[in-house]
Specification:
The protein is α/β, with parallel strands linked by helices and about 450 residues long. It has 17 helices and 14 strands. The chain has two domains: about 190 residues, 3-Layer(aba) Sandwich (Rossmann fold), CATH 3.40.50.720; about 230 residues, NAD(P)-binding Rossmann-like Domain (Rossmann fold, 3-Layer(aba) Sandwich). Strand 13, helix 17 and strand 14 form a beta-alpha-beta unit.
Length: about 450
């Protein structure tokens, strides 16, 4: 039997985190093999075609697959082995709100069977605190082979991943200096910014705390929006005016808070804390505010539909534009998108309405597959034309290019716009008219105060 092929790096999981990292490591000159159970993604990757939208990735991936620096396979086998393995599989929440570790455990066991003595294994997935030590390490140790293990969390922003993998400081968490140096050497091929921390648990917590901080910040902005609605003033004006030349009050703008990280990581942090008898009150409150926003705001949308009598004359047409979880930096990612939660709330509140969807980046065929009961629009203008209600669900800049005054000329009689992202709230009242509402700019008192 011939010697197995030796790769510098094996990436387990070619989702968003894994594929971007694999591509950049291959561009840096490493030989990389990606292991991904979904055969369609393996095939696309080997063709040099990304399975999601990411700035710069199509050209970069095409280049490294053509040069043979990156290839993908559906499973580990005896034909190859690696110096370093990086686990990037997903950790979705289970139905009881706890991060699943079954895919992490399976990945570690696959690596254990494939690795040679002395391999370096890096966990990059976002995990409950203790997973590196209590799940990955025992799975690797069961092989009886020697290995090094480090935790180096992923922190890239979708839409800027290739850039940030070369610019962001890389967190290196290991219990042993020699192991930390070894992991740092790999990431130094991408960036000179290396931050070594004292252990694997520290690295695990850093990722969770970073995203939870952002979630709590956004929740406070949404709390300000509720307050401003109650007093009939503009949250956009309050926040924008209050921080002009005054950086100590750098509150973000209100809006929908979701995505594959922010909807999940605070829950993982809270579950981690509960294992030590700690309840994270601010984290829990932040999630509560952000998770109830779709239902709360749809109640306003419904009240305005009733006030205007829009359901009386013919079918009610509600079109939701901006379905990806964010629009800036742009992405096609629908995972954890709060626009989907808004859609669900609208369908529940208005079961007889004709509902349509549009996104500037996500391909229409993907939208059609994800939302088979809704009409899919190919253009923003088509989604506006004749609608009773236009709901703007993400902050893609293109959704702010048609002013409310112009939109009012194309929507149905008495129709209105509800904007989760205050695209137009900087405009004077004369430009907004009486058919534009935004989060924190509806003049509506939320139920419950």
């Amino acid at each position: 039997m011939s010697e197995p092929a030796k790769y510098d790096v094996g990436i387990v999981g070619l989702g968003y985190v894994g594929l971007t990292l694999a591509t950049v490591l291959a561009e840096a000159g490493n030989s990389v093999i990606g292991v991904e159970t979904r055969q369609d993604i393996v095939d696309l990757t080997n063709e040099g075609t990304p399975h999601f939208t990411e700035t710069g990735l199509p050209d970069a991936l095409s280049g490294v697959t053509r040069s043979g620096k990156l290839r993908a396979v559906a499973a580990f086998d005896d034909s190859f082995t690696c110096d370093t393995y990086i686990i990037t599989v997903g950790t979705p929440l289970s139905s009881d709100g706890v991060a699943r570790v079954d895919m992490i455990d399976a990945a570690a066991r696959d690596i254990a069977a494939n690795m040679r003595d002395g391999a370096l294994v890096i966990l990059r997935s976002t995990v409950k605190v203790g997973t590196t030590r209590d799940v990955v390490t025992p799975a690797l140790a069961s092989s009886g082979k020697s290995f090094d293990i480090a935790m180096c969390p992923e922190r890239t922003l979708e839409g800027k991943a290739l850039q940030e993998l070369r610019e962001l400081p890389q967190i290196i968490g290991a219990d042993d200096q020699a192991v930390a140096d070894r992991a740092a050497a790999l990431f130094r091929r991408l960036t000179n910014s290396i931050v070594q921390v004292s252990g694997v648990e520290t690295a695990e917590i850093i990722k969770l705390v970073s995203n939870t901080f952002r979630d709590v910040q956004f929740a406070f902005a949404n709390e300000v929006a509720r307050l401003c609605d109650a007093f009939g003033v503009s949250a956009h004006e309050v926040i924008a005016s209050g921080k002009l030349g005054y950086n100590r009050t750098n509150i973000p703008m209100p809006g929908l808070v979701g995505g594959p990280c922010l909807e999940k990581d605070p829950h993982i942090l809270m579950e981690s804390a509960r294992t030590r008898g700690v309840h994270l009150e601010m984290t829990a409150a932040g999630r509560l505010v952000n998770e109830r926003q779709p239902e709360e705001t749809v109640r306003f949308i419904s009240s305005e539909i009733d006030r205007r009598g829009l359901a009386k004359d013919g079918p009610l047409k509600i079109n939701l534009v901006g379905m990806a979880f964010k629009g800036l930096p742009e992405t096609s990612d629908l995972r954890g998108s709060m626009s989907v939660k808004v859609l669900d709330a609208l369908k529940k509140a208005h079961p007889d309405a004709e509902i349509g969807v549009y996104d500037p980046v996500t391909p229409p065929e993907v939208l059609a597959s994800e939302f088979p009961d809704e009409r899919v629009f190919n253009r923003f203008g088509d989604a506006v034309s004749g609608a009773s209600v236009v709901v703007i669900g993400n902050n893609h800049p293109s959704l702010g290019t048609i002013s409310p005054r112009t939109i009012s000329e194309f929507i149905g009689p008495g129709g209105f716009v509800f904007d989760y992202w205050n695209h137009f709230s900087h405009l004077p009242a004369s430009e907004l008219g009486d058919s534009y509402f935004a989060v924190g700019k509806s003049g509506w008192v939320p139920a419950g105060g």
